Amino acid sequence: MGTLGASAGVTATGRGHFSLSSESFNGTVQLIDKLAEQSKLPKILVVGLDNLHLQRDNVPFWPNFIDRLQIATQNIATAAVEARFVDAARHIWRFGLSETIRFDNAFGPTTILTAISRAVSGDPNYLTPIEARTYRADGSQKPPAGKGKIAPILPSSSHLVMAQFERNLERLGTHVAAGHRVIIMETPIYPAFQQQLDAAPTRAVISARQRWNTACSKFGFYCVDALLIPDIPSAPWFDNTHPPEASWGAFIALEIQKAAE
Questions:
Q1: What are the tens digits of pLDDT across the range 113-154?
Q2: Alpha-carbon gap, residue 222 to 122, rounded angstroms
Q3: What pTM was estimated for this model as a whole?
Q4: Are 166 and 87 in contact (CB under 8 A)?
C-alpha cells in the first residue's frame, strides 16, 4: 500500500488488494463505491486518510473523463442547492486544475519522451535516466540518496469541503452496514511537526477531527490516529510526510491484524 496516500485493500480474505497511490480520500471512496457496484468489494477495507493537519482535498483522478465530469457536476450542483457557494467555487476550481494537470501528465514532453524511450528499447518497464533517479523498476519511489533538511509543516487553513467529507464518511458507513470491515488510518507526518500542530490545532482541523471521531463511533469504523514514528538513523524520514517504509508497513500490518480479530 506504499504510504497509504489513500487506498483500499484487503489482507485476510484472499480476494485481492487494491491501492491508489497518492489518490485523495474522495478518490478512495469513489473506488470503493465502484467496486461495490460490481460486487467486487473486499471484506476488509483499509482507507488511508491524509493527516488532517495537512487539510488535503482533491477530486478523484482515477475515473474516466465522463465519470470525472459527472462527479464534479454533482458536487457543484449539490453545493449550490445547499447554498454553499464557496464550496461550489472550490469544486469548480479543483476540477479545472486537476484536468489541467492530467492533460500535462498525458501530453507533456516528459510523458512523450518516456513513451518514445520505451518503444525504442522494447521494454515497457524501461526507466528514462530522469525517472531512474526517483523510481525503481517496480514503480515504487526511491528514498533520496542523502537526507536533507526536513521542510516544516505550517498550520493549514480550511481546504477540506466539510459537507463532502461527512458524506464520504457516511458512504463508507453503508459498506459497514453491508457487512464489510472498514479501517481508516490517519497518515503520519514528521513527529516533531505532529506534536507542534497537535498542541495548537486550527479550527479546520478541530472541525474535521470531530466529524471523523463522530463517524468512527456512529458507523463502527476501526479508526487509527496518526502514529508518531521516530526519526532515527536506522530508519530515517526523508521528507515531512513519508515515514520510513519498514516502520509504517509494520504498523499497518499490526493494525489490520487487530481489526480483523
A1: 777 877 887 777 776 666 666 666 655 666 656 566 788 888
A2: 46
A3: 0.79
A4: no
Q: What cell was used for 217?
A: 463511533
65-115 tens-digit pLDDT: 898 898 889 889 998 988 889 889 988 998 898 889 888 877 888 778 777
Radius of gyration, alpha carbons of the chain: 19
Mean pLDDT, all residues of the chain: 82
Point out which residues pair with 186 in neighbouring strands: 49
Residue 189: helix, strand or coil by DSSP? coil
Contact 92, 103 (CB under 8 A): no
Residue written as grid cell 469504523: 221
User: Distance between CA atoms of 129 and 151, rounded to whole angstroms?
Assistant: 27
Rounded distance, CA 38 to CA 48, Å?
22
Tell me how far apart the alpha carbons of residues 63 and 69 are, in angstroms, rounded to a whole number: 9
Residue 64 · residue 91 · CB < 8 Å? no
Distance separating alpha carbons of residues 171 and 18, to the nearest angstrom: 18
Q: How far is the C-alpha of 243 from the C-alpha of 146, rounded, in Å?
A: 15
